Amino acid sequence: MNSAASRESAEVIVSQLQEIVGEANVRVSDEDFATFGRDWTRAVDPNPVAIVFPRSIEQVQAVIRRANDLEFGIVPSGGRTGLSGGAVAANGEVVLALDYMNAISGFDPIDRTVVCEAGVITEQLQQYAEEQGLFYPVDFASAGSSQIGGNISTNAGGIKVIRYGMTRDWVAGLKVVTGTGELLELNNGLLKNNAGYDLRQLFIGAEGTLGVVVEATIQLTRQPHDLTALVLGVPDFDALMKVFNQFQSGIDLTAFEFFSEQALQKVVEHQGLARPFESVTPFYCLLEFERLNEHVEEQAMAMFEAAVEQGWVVDGVMSQSLEQLKNLWRLREDISETISRWTPYKNDISTVISKVPEFLVAVENVVNARYPDFEIIWFGHIGDGNVHLNILKPDSLDKTTFFEQCSEVSLEVFDIVERFGGSVSAEHGVGLLKKPYLKYTRSAAEIAAMKAIKVVFDPKGVMNPGKVFD
């Protein structure tokens, strides 16, 4: 299917969309195209034919059915915080923005579930859960703008995966509109349901290529008690994992993050934050746990002192208040926003936790050898094997040349990923940017199966065309 629209067909498409959702809910300005036609990536320029804002499931169904009739592509759009180009409309598609489908309803205190429309902001759900005395644990830096539908479509992870898992672990039920416009109601919030295939899991992480998530039943859990963070300075990658193993053996960690000295320097300089302590070390880890009682705190301090004696830790600090906890977390969470001004080339890669130190060294050696003048920023969720490699664009280099050079070195990085049995996209999805590299993580047989599944739910290929695979 050709998603590009001529001027004449564009006028027809816009007119047809206006009939479905009303003229006020179809936008065609250049400003709206720039805002709603892409995600946080800037490698591909947006070129949609229209932005449509449905306000009901029935309108979503009608738009998708019209896409089948007129043969135009649909790009589902949530908070547009993705980093792989999954929400980019570059070839005359219609952007289906779920912003106005943002109601929360159907809370059940016994089941601990809540029903959310796709446009509910992640932070909005977190606040709602807190008001009910409960907790929605999927959390990341973009929680204030990302939407639940987008989180589900990318199986978002974030900073607490080590304790709480990925988004898919909290989706008890789904309503999705397929590529034919059919509404499927999947799992209905059941904890136990072995009646055939669990189609819900196919749509979680499918990046809108099979259909549109329009509503979700989300599982909540108890609130954590007295969260406490330790930031520790460590001398090398290997020490990071020794610290992780030590603390994980004695405390139930809710997070274990890491970042480099270069990352810390950027955040301190541009966000006005204070360094955690005077000592300067190559890397830092931030670990979080529940201070359930004095024994837990004493145990944490004993493990810290033992790590110092072993030479795994140079210095450290423990949060003593909620405000200090938030500030320590900002040292890690503000990195992405801070480095965005350098147009970073991002690699979101993973391997099994036990191989992380060797994996990191291998990747860093390749990048430093190929581009010794490029600044490298490391950070990530090292407690679940997911690390983020960010190469910053020099001011003297134009964006096109920079991305071309980074793409070349990415092939060597992905060779390492393949050798370690890892993933070229741990949590950001495939979208447009990772599509050429899918073969490094998925076999030819797996990709063929994915394509066959897409044909079942989206036979005319109207849903997010050109994403994940061609």
Describe the SSE topology:
Elements: H1 7-21, E1 26-27, H2 30-36, E2 50-52, H3 57-70, E3 74-77, E4 94-97, E5 104-108, E6 113-117, H4 122-131, E7 134-135, H5 148-154, H6 161-164, E8 171-178, E9 183-186, H7 200-203, E10 211-219, E11 221-222, E12 227-234, H8 237-250, E13 253-260, H9 261-271, E14 283-290, H10 294-310, E15 315-318, H11 322-333, H12 335-339, E16 345-350, H13 356-370, E17 375-381, E18 386-392, H14 399-419, H15 444-457
Parallel strand pairs: 2-4, 3-4
Antiparallel strand pairs: 1-2, 5-6, 6-10, 7-11, 8-9, 8-10, 12-14, 12-15, 13-14, 13-17, 16-18, 17-18
Helix pairs in contact: 1-3, 8-10, 8-13, 13-14
Explain the overall architecture.
InterPro entries: FAD-bd_oxidored_4_C, FAD-bd_PCMH, FAD-bd_PCMH-like_sf, FAD-bd_PCMH_sub2, FAD-linked_Oxase-like_C, FAD-oxidored/transferase_4, Oxid_FAD_bind_N, Vanillyl_alc_oxidase_C-sub2. It comes from Litorivivens lipolytica. The structure is a single chain. By secondary structure, this protein is an alpha+beta fold. The mean pLDDT is 95. It has four domains: 7-100 and 453-457, Uridine Diphospho-n-acetylenolpyruvylglucosamine Reductase, domain 2, CATH 3.30.43; 104-222, Uridine Diphospho-n-acetylenolpyruvylglucosamine Reductase, domain 3, CATH 3.30.465; 227-336, Alpha-Beta Plaits (2-Layer Sandwich), CATH 3.30.70.2190; 343-428, Alpha-Beta Plaits (2-Layer Sandwich). It is built from 15 helices and 18 strands. The strands form four sheets. A seven-stranded antiparallel beta sheet has the order 15-12-14-13-17-18-16, sandwiched between helices. Strands 5-6-10-8-9 form a five-stranded antiparallel beta sheet. A four-stranded mixed beta sheet has the order 1-2-4-3, with helices on both faces. The protein has helices at residues 7-21, 30-36, 57-70, 122-131, 148-154, 161-164, 200-203, 237-250, 261-271, 294-310, 322-333, 335-339, 356-370, 399-419, 444-457; strands spanning 26-27, 50-52, 74-77, 94-97, 104-108, 113-117, 134-135, 171-178, 183-186, 211-219, 221-222, 227-234, 253-260, 283-290, 315-318, 345-350, 375-381, 386-392. β17 (375-381) and β18 (386-392) form a beta hairpin.
